[in-house]
Amino acid sequence: MRRLLLLALLVPVACAVVVGAAQARQAGTTVNLVAYSTPKPVMQKLISRFGHTSAGNGVSFSQSYGPSGSQARAIAAGQPASIAFLSTGLDIDTIADAGLVGKNWNKAPYSAIAADSVVAFVVRPGNPKHIHGWSDLVKSGIQVVTPNPFSSGSAKWNVLAAYGAARKSGMSDHKAVQFVTKLFKHVVSQDTSGSNAANTFFSGKGDVLITYESEAYSAFAAGKQGKLIVPRPTMLIELPMVALKDATSAAKAFIAYAHAPKQQAIFASNGYRPVVKSVLKRPNLASWAKKYKTGPTFNIRDRLFGGWLKANRIWFDQNTGRMVGIERAVGG
Amino acid sequence: MEASAARAPHFRPREAARAGGRASTAISVGIISTFLTVVVVLPIAALVWESHKSGAHAFWQAVSNPLAVSALKLTFGAAFVVVIVNIVFGTVTAWVLVRDDFPGRSVVNAVIDLPFALPTIVAGLTLLALYGPRSPIGIDVAYTRTAIVLALCFVTLPFVVRTVQPVLLELDTEMEEAARSLGARQTTVFRRIVLPNLLPGILSGAVLALARALGEIGSLVLIAGNIPGHTQVVSVYVLNQIESGDPSGAAAVAVVLLGASFVLLLAVGALRFFVTRYERG
Amino acid sequence: MAKRLGLRAVALGYLLVVLLAPLVMIFYRTFENGLKPVWEALSDPNTVHAFEITLIATAIAVPVNTVFGVLCALAIVRRRFRGKGLLNAFIDLPLALSPVVVGLALFLLYGRTGWFGSWFTAHGIQVLFALPAIVLATIFVSVPFVAREVIPTLRELGNEQEQAAATLGATRWQRFWRITLPSIRWAVIYGVVLTTARCLGEYGAVAVVSGRVEGQTETATLRVEGYTLNFNTSGAYAVSVVLAATAVFVLVLMTLIKPREAV
Description:
Shape of chain A: globular
Largest sheet of chain A: 10 strands, mixed
Order of helices and strands of chain A: HEHEHEHEEHHEHEHEEHHEHHH
Number of strands of chain A: 10
Strand content of chain C: under 5%
Oligomer: heterotrimer
Mean pLDDT of chain A: 91
Low-confidence stretches of chain C: none
């Protein structure tokens, strides 16, 4: 018994030493990619192709995928990262505040955006509740699924899109805020993240899920049942990819590579809208070009919002944000 | 109390202090507190510090937010229900697993701990599939407070069972048989002999279940619905604060939760002390 | 007899609703789409590596917490010292902290600008986003189990046998190995099993502090989350079933190697 116990104490220590040594042995250029939850399939395609280019030859990648906000905080707290690919510019700002990327990170080619998407709806197959636009969401009996905007970046896009759509349809600021409040009274589950919300919806709860168009396509690709509706008007979602200040040249080369037409075409055929619009003219992408036809009508730089920093302060501040009042009205 | 005379005499601390020796007490307490300091106290100290970083006013503002208050109330309420359920059903389960015999008993015994080993996200997905809108057995409790209690019962299931089981295994059946042969009824035997011996085990498990129920998040997020003011528990509220860039506010609410838990745990400790004293007679 | 059947029905009915039905559901979901996706998920080198990380963290956390738990239980039950009540309440506190808050606390201590973070960085030691943080978080969430298991059994036990042995000249060490440990074996076994299960299944705190780099710092539960994010339910459930099976294996193993029966 005593020997067993001794063994039980020694084995883990030995294991730890072996793992530590294995980690220390990694050599050559390594690019640490820290990304938000869902672009893994498309990123893996890009990374394996990058390895065959002259710039990418011999470069090894470490990959980390997780909720965008947590990933940003992890980088700020010291997680080794050379490329951050996150779901809102706000999360890049978190890293910029920590001094790890330049404050003017968006002064890069394509404003440092690697791919686009739009705020969209997923409804049940056959659209039994006839949901086509924003105003259909607040009809009586409609159950909406969207994550909580305080914990989820994707929900922030959803809230701003709902407000923007209301304003674009001619409502005053006051009326538009009332519309968002009414919308949240129809929300049956405020999940903690976009992927939890998707799980809730595909488990059978609710009539409509508000989400990124790209997320909907990845769910369909995995065999989930539903119908995608792109409402009109809707909001542009921009997915920023930046290199950190101390990143190697390989990391910067990879970001340039991701913007090249061939790679943009890969984004396009995986449910993301390319930032290099010309690739949609390619004949093999014709079916995707048709799907992306309903374009976004406004974005975060619209004067309705005035950029992420301002929009975040007005809407999502923990004490004074508009969303605090809306949540209280819902929970009260 | 007559029954106590029949039980084996209990351990008396004074004799042990003599047997154990002052020096060795100091050493073992030293080791324990060093370990606890590094592993538990330091992180908690960091949280307390963070919660007060923005001043007392900000602290108060964070914890007096009506949504925070209702989340705290909901969490403590649910935890209370869960503890009661655990005490009753956990004790019965432990009893059945030790004293009863039926086909498949060892299999049931082997799977008791599984709620711990399963990643909480899978627990959430499974409970949602089983007791959600597409329930194969027609029970849909998802997105209600019942769902919160159900999920918490799942993740706290092993505690009382596993703390009562070893006590039952060590408990001599001779005393019970003696009492029975002297004409005591089954309920009297249970109340006078078995229960007093099991109580420390039951309380031990209840304390663990209480603590876990207060801090749980993973298995809840999918099935609770997380509507602020209705089905949002404290851990989800705190997560929202962290994610929206307000770590001090998050720490403040967490510290309040911790303080309340600490007081509750102290109270249970006092109760335990009272119980063990009482039975010593 | 009727009473016994009644109790059995209550216990099994409860277990059916809360435990057995979910377990059946998990097995059904795992093999719903045949064996191929299960095998693909489990044979992926990154999954294998994730299991290794989880096992290493568990293999460190469990012995540490077991030794601590037994020491702690012995001190609380058999010794007198100031602050015993505080200690008793303190060991359960880690459970009451939401795992994300544990992650936040570890950031505050070991982050780039944390209390000790800058010291560790200056000395080239990576704590966060590496094995040490994973182990620390795993130990944190499973501190109280062994102590809480052993305390009630130790109370129930009393110490006449040990005193008898002491009068016969047995050393303290002999008394512990020959008398105390065999008597509390079931409590230790269940404590170890609970701790192991909790370590295997830990998700929240590890998710925050590990950095979740595939093939490096990703644990099995993070792998599960990754699969659910990409709607690969079979993969997620397959990894979970292996974790659950490991817990059962540990229980069986512990039962087999338990110390000799007391007299």
